[in-house]
Amino acid sequence: MNRDDHTFRLGQVLVVCAPSGTGKSTLISMLRDEYPDFGFSVSYTTRAPRGSEQDGREYNFVTRDQFVAMRSRGDFCEWAEVHGNFYGTATRPVEEMLHAGRDVLFDIDVQGAKQLKKTFYKGTYVFLLPPSREELVRRLEGRGTDSAESIAKRLANASGELAQAEWFDYWVVNDDLDEAYRELKSVYLAGRCKPALRPGILGNIMDTWKNNG
Questions:
Q1: 194 is known to lie in a ligand binding site
Q2: What is the pLDDT of residue 200?
Q3: Which region is the signal sequence (predicted)?
Q4: Which residue segment(s) compose the domain that 57 sits in?
Q5: Is 24 annotated as a binding residue?
Q6: 23 among the known binding-site residues?
Q7: Which of 51, 74, 140, 162 could form a disulfide with 21 if both were Cys (CB 3.0 to 4.6 A apart)?
Q8: Which helix (H) or strand (E) holds 90?
């Protein structure tokens, strides 16, 4: 595709964050089902492969020294240490997909999103909100997979995450799933129309006036 053509569009970074139990996985799955061409960046990790996981498919498995060296070079747009292991997203593969016009979807936590915004500040950052604390408790208890202690911890984490919601570009309240999906979809589609992602479109269209007197 010619970058000078008015149809050329750079890819969009779409970041979706939410407290556990808000319904983020369901909404992201719905979006990916309707728009299956989202790019996906294989993360790097220092943990060992599990089960049938393969290097380069689920994760890029590296040693701790390799990860630290990559981090020192500034290769990661976001990284974190979880349970003693490092996880990170390399910047270059994401940039390559974006320059090819492919949108990239990130399902990460708030701290990862804050790091990501330093590199991809033109992205679209969405925070999914539960309608209330009571409803979040009901959903967490309804899953039947968490102990009372785990639920209490998730609620405490949710409070801290909600305090960070103010710097996101959009808020979507997941009270009604269908309505929440319509809003998330609308945000995604609107983001695709940002002028920053359509380089050359205005100039090329204005040129049609010059060429026709």
A1: no
A2: 84
A3: none
A4: 41-101
A5: yes
A6: yes
A7: 140
A8: strand 85-90
Residue type, 80: A
- Whether 43 has a binding-site annotation, put simply, is no
| Strands annotated E in the chain | 13-17, 44-45, 60-61, 76-82, 85-90, 104-107, 124-129, 170-173
Listed as ranges, residues in the chain with pLDDT below 70 are 1-7, 211, 213
State the pLDDT at residue 213: 58
Query: Does 199 show up as a binding residue in the annotation?
Result: no
First to last CA, the chain: 28
Residue 153 to residues 17, 160, 177, Cα–Cα distance (Å): 18, 11, 25
Element (H, E) at 138: helix 133-143
- Predicted local confidence at residue 7, as pLDDT: 66
Location of structure tokens 């719905």: 30
147 is in an annotated binding site: no
Q: Which token pair is 134?
A: 């009571």
25 and 67 co-located in one domain? no
Number of domains in the chain: 2
What secondary structure letter does DSSP report for 42? P
Residue 121 amino acid letter:
Y
